[in-house]
Amino acid sequence: MATHIRRPLADDIVRSLKARIRDGDYPPGTRLPTEAELCKRFGVSRATVRTALKELHVLGLIRTQQGAGTFVLDQPSVQDGLERMGSITERIRASGKVPGHEYGRRTLRQVLPDEAERMGVPADTEVLELRRRITADHDVVAYSYDLIPRDLFPADFDPDTLSGSMFAAFENLLGLHPTLGLAKVHAVMSAHIAWGPDAAKHRLFVLLDQLHYDAAHTLLAYSKTYFVEGAYEFQIVRTSD
């Protein structure tokens, strides 16, 4: 005879409240029902409700203010998996938002010594330097500083014609397919990263310092992408295996 295993009641509360937050029944800034009201609604003890609220807090969905109640937090514009490498543009689109790119610089120059060392290229290597603001529904979610070896482009390439996603340019313009990324991750607080109209609001970032390669291990780009804290969220899948 099969034994039916009942999920913990706290899980039921978490699933229900997550769905209502996702569906907009509890928009950002809304105060959730009190613990007593949730106990009555779900027919559970206060300890069970507190366990559910703790999980929602760990998930970054709510915050509790002593004496005032529990409130729904603003959610990031875009969510991504840190273990996957792919186009930021596609992740924004997959989040149901319209991606955008604003270019502040497209310059051909020689690599600096520290860049040459990080990229593993000769000191006289010429690169295309890009400076971009990446947006989701017109809100800035990242500032990216990219270096692409000049010899990947045709001899008559005009940097000013480059627009939109860097990954799309690799695929559509150059026929190249980024398949491998080697990245370092840092938390950064700086007043010198952001630029443009929203610069004053952006001081805290998650930096992805990344080398991009194709399947043949050809270096395609070196990117330092500063993701705006609270606007672009990375999730990591961890297992015990």
Automatic annotation (TrEMBL):
Keywords: DNA-binding, Transcription, Transcription regulation. The keyword Transcription applies. This is GntR family transcriptional regulator. Residues 7-75 form the HTH gntR-type domain. Pfam families: GntR, UTRA. The keyword Zinc does not apply. InterPro entries: Bact_HTH_transcr_reg, Chorismate_lyase_/UTRA_dom_sf, Tscrpt_reg_HTH_GntR, UTRA, WH-like_DNA-bd_sf, WH_DNA-bd_sf.
